[in-house]
């Protein structure tokens, strides 16, 4: 935790008359995978959207690589080096896979080396490169959503539930691709409801409840303490199989 790439300090976010984030304090270390965990509806997605400026924090500081971005517009946050994969994937179904990737890369068509890196992580994208993205399966669309965030070098990836609703074989492929991204030294802040995936990918964990961070520590510590898991999240990681 001595070298954070992202720090949230007492972040409050309201949506209409509802106070969703109520003083979030969170640190994401550089070059590590931080899992943001908790029950449904406690503010995890709101946290990611607030970091990206899609929802504006009412108060608090959001410091990315030494700069406070709490008041920055979303395009400026993206240009600063944060890639975002929303839960709804955000792909353009009528465009081809290639066109989706070009839109995600400000510099235009992908360089061959980067394209091959993405194909190595997600082989189906090579097959469907010039097909409409709407023809992809759910798992392939999720692959495209993550690949779009990889279209340019990012210093931090925010990924919201990438394995939600996917078949086990696709979950395994997705986990392998994220492991490869982690091995390259990427910093990742990830919301994940599949706790087996969280356990195997995460270096650190932060658990949310009622709009606040209620526990932080090593993912291995949380994974090894069934009583702590049940107290914080109401379930045991042991209930989930291998990714």
UniProtKB/TrEMBL annotation:
One example of a Gene Ontology biological process annotation: L-amino acid transport
GO molecular function: ATP binding; ATP hydrolysis activity; branched-chain amino acid transmembrane transporter activity
PROSITE patterns with a match to the protein in the record: ABC_TRANSPORTER_1 (PS00211), ABC_TRANSPORTER_2 (PS50893)
Protein keywords: Amino-acid transport, ATP-binding, Nucleotide-binding, Transport
Extent of the signal sequence: none
Alphabetized Gene3D superfamilies for the sequence: P-loop containing nucleotide triphosphate hydrolases (3.40.50.300)
Transmembrane segments: none
UniProt keyword ATP-binding present: yes
Family, as annotated: Belongs to the ABC transporter superfamily.
Protein name, as recorded: Branched-chain amino acid transport system ATP-binding protein
């Amino acid at each position: 935790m001595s070298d954070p790439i992202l720090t949230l300090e007492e972040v409050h976010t309201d949506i209409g008359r509802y106070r969703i984030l109520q003083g979030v304090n969170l640190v994401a270390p550089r070059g590590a995978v931080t899992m943001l965990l908790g029950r449904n509806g406690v503010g995890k997605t709101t946290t990611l959207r607030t970091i990206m400026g899609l929802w504006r924090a009412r108060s608090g500081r959001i410091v990315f690589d030494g700069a406070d971005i709490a008041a920055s517009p979303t395009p400026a946050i993206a240009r600063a080096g944060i890639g975002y994969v929303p839960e709804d994937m955000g792909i353009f179904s009528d465009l081809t896979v290639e066109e989706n990737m070009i839109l995600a890369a400000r510099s235009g068509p992908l360089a061959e080396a980067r394209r091959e890196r993405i194909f190595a992580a997600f082989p189906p994208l090579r097959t469907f490169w010039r097909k409409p993205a709407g023809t992809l399966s759910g798992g392939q669309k999720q692959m495209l959503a993550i690949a779009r965030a990889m279209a340019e070098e990012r210093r931090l990836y925010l990924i919201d539930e990438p394995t939600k609703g996917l078949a086990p074989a696709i979950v395994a492929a997705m986990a392998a691709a994220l492991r490869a991204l982690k091995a390259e030294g990427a910093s990742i802040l990830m919301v994940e409801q599949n706790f087996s995936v969280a356990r195997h990918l995460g270096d650190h964990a932060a658990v949310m409840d009622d709009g606040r961070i209620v526990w932080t520590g090593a993912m291995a510590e949380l994974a090894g303490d069934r009583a702590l898991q049940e107290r914080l999240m109401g379930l045991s990681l042991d209930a989930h199989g291998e990714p």
